[in-house]
Amino acid sequence: MVGAAYLSPDAFDTIYLPATPEDKVTQTWTLSEAGSSIDGIKNLLVNKNHLGNGIATLTNPPANLTSGPGLQYLATAVQAYLALYGGVSLVVPGIFYFWPSNTNSFYHGATTYVPGGAVDFNGGAVYSKAFTTLKYGPLLLTTPPFEYDNIWTINFYDVYGQVYHTVGKQHGSNGGAKVYIVPPGWEGELPNEEFELVRSPTIEGILLGRTLVGGNNSAVRPFDLAWTLEVYDNPDAESLPEAIRFAYPEASISAGDWQTPQDPLSFWKLVGEVYRRNGAWHIQDPLKRLLPTLGLWEEYGFVQASVSPLALDALKIAPYYANRILTAKWINLGPKERGYWQNPWNLGSYGVDYVNLAAQQKFWNIPNKQVDAVYYWGFVDSDAVPYTGANGTEYDIEFPFAPPVNNYSFWSIVANRHPNVLLGAPPPPGSPPGQAAWSSIYKDAYSNNGTWRFRLSATPPPANSTAASRGWNWVSTPPDTFYLTLRLYSPGAAPLADTYIPPPVVRVKRGGASPTPTPTPTPTPAPSPSGTSPAPAPGPSPTVRRLRQR
After folding, report:
1. Whole-angstrom Cα distance, residue 258 to residue 81?
2. C-alpha torsion 140→144→145→151, nearest 10
């Protein structure tokens, strides 16, 4: 199964194996920060056994990659994977394929427009997306004037998932936007002084819009459907692509897995083509200078014939180490005094932070700028124990006051937005976006004199009860491992200043013994072309035995 290889069995060892909460925080941070430089990765590979038991489970590299040129190739390949992963995350099939309707190159969905004009907001927002290519020349995005109080944004993402521009209510666009998007290196003249010039860092990309509930909701449908995106003044241009694959015939949904035994070079072949078409503006020296040693050429893509046998061995095993590092970045725990919640301050604006870019594109590849939305992630409860909904386990969280958001906005809590992501399985193509979210705009939302109390459980409350009669709001959790996302759309000043701290999540009930898990088979790596067999893939660790409980 594809999902079985999405993450390695030991991916979450740094939050399961350490004995103390402090060690969990330290080891997860240490592993995540190791990817910040090639030398840091080399140090990790050489000294992993001295950095804590959650890091020591890293598989030993093959002998020919443990020192000298081999170690240099491996560390370079790991960082190249992190830096380029965003391209693969957006071009594989199955990403953003659940939008049901399209008009003017935009697909409007993750919600359904109901005949008659009503809108079913998915947790509080209508999503719209358009895939972009500038190979035929500049694009013109237009949005009509909007006089109502609904908050809306359109984020402009390059092919690696980095936000390079935003329009919307909070960005002064309610009077109508006319955005002239030009490719890298464009030196023409703006055809109309009313156009806003925006330079895309890459040829390909995606536009993603969000229109929030609040204000005049009946006006949302005609407003969103009036957005237009077209190649400007080029009658010979083909229509914009319906999917971000952009005719990538080699794209495979497994290309971003930690291991691809059917073709150990599938990631590099695909990302090489992304690199050839788009360049990689965010990659700097020394990595940029070293990419050709891995067979990655900006003019040609991935050229296997130009790679030495030693470097080829490194390319085949690098995805495993890169995925351990980027997973650690994703599950980085906040400090105890913050209830272990984390708030990645640079979400959506990465620059050369390769590890953060890779982590967000693996697990959350539609980030916002913080002025539009702040996300808090929680992977462990107040005792630093990872969340689970198994065996009747329940949690409480009590907000003494609502998280600060602006007028005409909302906040929400969701457990495990993408099903089974902690089990190492992405949602299948066409699946719903994930576990149902609780939102502050729900009719059943309950607050007692400004205090908001929640029960997190896989077991629904009695059908004849209400949040008010129970005294708490219910957040649905999966029956197995999960993480929490607290979303604040159009956040207030405290979240933007990173001074707001969500309350701790307290485990209040645990059921009986956990069921015996079914071991997950581990794929066998392909033989090394240099004649040296790569290290065996890591077998199921104590982590996977816990993570895969059902």
Report:
1. 11
2. -90
In sequence order, the β-bridge partners of residue 375 are: 487
Task: Quote helix, strand, coil % in the chain, to nearest 5.
Answer: 30, 20, 50
263 SS3 class: coil
Q: Which residues pair with 112 in a beta bridge?
A: 120
How far the first Cα of the chain sits from its last, in Å, is 17
Which of 6, 82, 95 has the alpha carbon at shortest distance from 44?
82
Domain ranges in the chain are: 21-95+254-331, 107-239, 368-507
Look up residue 345 and give its two tokens: 């301050």
Write the pLDDT tens digit of every residue in 218-262.
898 889 889 999 999 888 877 766 555 455 656 677 888 899 898
CA distance 446 to 361: 34
Fold of 107-239: Immunoglobulin-like (2.60.40)
Q: What is the distance between the alpha carbons of residues 2 and 427, in angstroms, rounded to a whole number?
A: 10
- Selection from 52, 57, 59, 56 nearest residue 25 by Cα: 52
pLDDT tens profile 147-205: 999 999 999 999 998 899 999 999 999 999 999 999 999 999 999 999 999 999 999 99
Domain 368-507 has CATH 2.60.120.1600: yes
Q: What is the DSSP string of 376-412?
A: EEE-B-TTSPBPB-GGG-EEEEEESS---B-TT--EE
- Residue 482: alpha-carbon gap to chain centroid: 15
Other C-beta atoms closer than 10 Å to the C-beta of 122 total 18
Given a cut of 80, is residue 521 above it in pLDDT?
A: no
CB 319 within 8 A of CB 257: yes
Say how many C-beta atoms besides its own lie within 10 A of residue 399's C-beta.
17
Please give the single-letter amino acid code of residue 84: L
Hey, what are 434's tokens?
């994930």
Structure tokens at 274: 């992304």
Quote the pTM value.
Answer: 0.86
In sign, the C-alpha dihedral spanning 53, 58, 59, 65 is negative
Instruction: Report residue 408 as tokens.
Output: 């005409």
DSSP secondary structure letter of residue 500: -
**Would the pLDDT of 119 be above 70?**
no
